């Protein structure tokens, strides 16, 4: 297909023809007439065998035309549009001018003895294609020679791809060309240099702190495995010869003005005159779509609870907690007593001269007889008081350990402590309120109540128990009863929370819901309802108001669905009661428990 117009004998190598007389490669195309279809165009383009990429900027133009026909889903034998037919005809005319192309076969001039050899690779990409070209830079004491080695030009994928991704793909192509040339060139080479006009690619390659999405991450990994970050340098687009492979060139421009074969002029000069640009990898834009977003994970570290703390926090009733602790203490005493009895029986039998197995059997028999004599145990008020003392003692040492230690050493508590104003004292291991009421004629528990903190689980249980004991009385009555034995820091807010969480109090004292009224007529624009209220939501637990029944007999229901007006305000709801499904307006409902956000 490609024939050389030479008088001397010609040699063939890899589809190229070598002119022995000038020691150069020349091309002369003699093409057969082909139809203007995808099949005909592909046949002509494929016949131009150019393994080293001498004509890559020229051939890429025909490949781009062929890709455009594929994008338009034309059949292999469909006639192409006259616009594309003209482009193809012009390219065929340009192909005839390629016979003027000539490139020296030898990469080293005659009588040139290089001291150093170094590979330089240029890569670039555009919206339609990407490419790379490699040169070898030979240098001795006085001269520098630059020779073309290998070039590649490829069309961009049909699927739309961003320019930074194509630039990175071109950089990977340059790395693979470098690996190929290192395998094939049997000469000593210095560290290769890679050039690109994309600062984004340089930042990707040099970045150590950012994590990229799969496409970029895979290609950056390939580049880093084969090269170092300091091997990559910046070159402007006008000095980048690979730019010609990304947009294609006509034969005339390629033959007269192309840098593709000769390379950039700055490589002939000394290294200190090469283009430089400092690229900071940490300046990647935060909105770069290729960078994985930093995920912030907030972890809540809870202090590991001791078995006793876990046991206390398990209960939601003060009486049940005291009863359970009382039984545990009683079991502890019983086990200690049985252990003591076993020691006594063992000491008695040890004095005999019988065999050890017989002694052990006698001890077991006596222990069994002793257990049968034990009566069924029951709890007394003293047991409950002892359990309460143990619970208070444990909670105080857990929460007020530094204060108890200071008082135990006959020191005062720190002024920064929350207990400083209470003048605390330690009585039988329990921290109590001090003060000046020691001579007052009143019970000691009232003069010196036990100190607790509102954040203690025990404090919540005690307040809840007093609230239930007083028949769901108000806050002041609760606090009055509480301070006969306990002093809870910030008890006022703790009592309010108990009242607000009490379902029974809500049921007995809750107000019927109200909703913002509909918009007034234009002549009555004064608005009465200014405060926005929470809309009732599915899952809420409500009471259904009934004027014919006492409040304690009102039915309880769960909201299934809501009906809102044009303004989004709920006017009526559908309810599931114990026996049926009802529909009621919100003004006939009393909120008990709001649905959780989950």
Short characterization:
Helix content is 38%, strand content 17%. It has 598 residues and is of the alpha+beta class.
CATH C-level name of the domain at 106-283: Alpha Beta
Shape: elongated
Unreliable residue runs: 1-6
Strand content: 15-25%
Q: CATH architecture of the domain at 106-283, please? A: 2-Layer Sandwich
Number of helices, counting only DSSP H or I runs of 4 residues or more: 18
- In helices, the fraction of residues equals 25-40%
How many strand segments? Answer: 18
Q: Radius of gyration, Cα only, in angstroms?
A: 47 Å
Please, what is the oligomeric state?
single chain
Largest sheet: 5 strands, mixed
- Give me the side-by-side strand order of the main sheet: 7-6-5-8-9
Mean pLDDT, all residues: 85
SS content category: alpha+beta
Properties at a glance:
598 residues, alpha+beta, Nucleotidyltransferase, domain 5, five-stranded mixed β-sheet, five-stranded antiparallel β-sheet, 18 helices, 18 strands, 38% helix, disordered N terminus
